[in-house]
Amino acid sequence: MAALLAIEALAVARGGIAILERVEFSLSAGQALVLRGPNGCGKTTLLRTIAGLQPPLAGRIEAAPDAIAYAAHADGLKATLSVSENLQFWAAVYGQSNRVASALAEMNLEALAQRAAMSLSAGQKRRLGLARLLVTGRPVWVLDEPTISLDAASVALFANALRAHLALGGAALIATHIDIGLAEAVTLDLTPLKARAPQDGGASGGFDEAFA
Amino acid sequence: MSIWEYANPKKFMQTSAWALPWFTGLAAITLVTGLVWGFFFTPEAANFGTTVKIIYIHVPSAMMAINIWVMMLVTSLIWLIRRHHVSALAAKAAAPVGLVMTLIALFTGAIWGQPMWGTWWEWDPRLTSFLILGLFYLGYIALWQAIDNPDTAADLTGVLCLVGSVFALLSRYAVNFWNQGLHQGASLSVDKQENVSDVYWYPLLFCIAGFILLFIVLVLVRTRTEVRSRRLKALEARERLA
Amino acid sequence: MIALLLRDLRLAVRAGGGFGLSLAFFLIVTVLVPFGVGPEGGTLARIAPGILWVGALLACLLSLDRIYALDFEDGSLDLLATAPIPMEAVVSVKALAHWLTTGLPLVLAAPVFGVLLHLPGPAYFWLVISLAVGTPALSVLGAFGAALTVGLKRGGLLLSLLVLPLYVPTLIFGAELIARGSAGGATATPLLMLAGITAATVALVPFAAAAAIRVNLR
Amino acid sequence: MMPELGKYAVSVMSAYGVTVVLLVGIVAQSLWRAARVRRALEAQEQRTGAHNG
Question: B-chain residues within 8 Å CB-CB of A17?
Answer without folding.
Answer: 234, 237-238, 241
